[in-house]
Amino acid sequence: MAYSEKVIDHYTNPKNVGTLDKSKKNVGTGLVGAPECGDVMRLQIEVDEESGIIKDAKFKTFGCGSAIASSSLATEWLKGKTVDEAINIDNMDIVEELNLPPVKIHCSVLAEDAIKSAINDYRVKNGLPELTEEGAK
Ligand code: FES
Ligand code: FES
């Protein structure tokens, strides 16, 4: 299978690998697994409480190269967005940007699920209702 240069770049040189302090009220943590393969992804956001802008994002992915590349790209996209904008990051945008082949689409779904899960954690911690299936779109 031929991977795009962007996948290889995010895989060999992933951005924002790490951990944020999940005890902080302005940090949201998402932990999700892919039923297709058992890979696991943790993604965290740190929100500037005044502006609602995501000022930092980190991930750790125990999974395939495409999942690592998807989460690396996702953290890059998250930074600088408001939480409400971040809800609208769609896995198909990741597929397009990384040119993922069909068998690797679920790897990008994992990244979208991790984003939503991190946002939900942040929302619940701050007294907001959880997102519904459709998100807050
Ligand atoms: Fe083996 Fe994802 S299926 S790492
Ligand atoms: Fe399962 Fe990529 S996340 S193969």
Automatic annotation (TrEMBL):
This is Iron-sulfur cluster assembly scaffold protein IscU. InterPro entries: ISCU (IPR011339), NIF_FeS_clus_asmbl_NifU_N (IPR002871). A scaffold on which IscS assembles Fe-S clusters. It is likely that Fe-S cluster coordination is flexible as the role of this complex is to build and then hand off Fe-S clusters. It comes from Rurimicrobium arvi. Pfam families: NifU_N. NCBIfam families: iscU (TIGR01999). Belongs to the NifU family. It comes from the Bacteria. Residues 2-126 form the NIF system FeS cluster assembly NifU N-terminal domain.
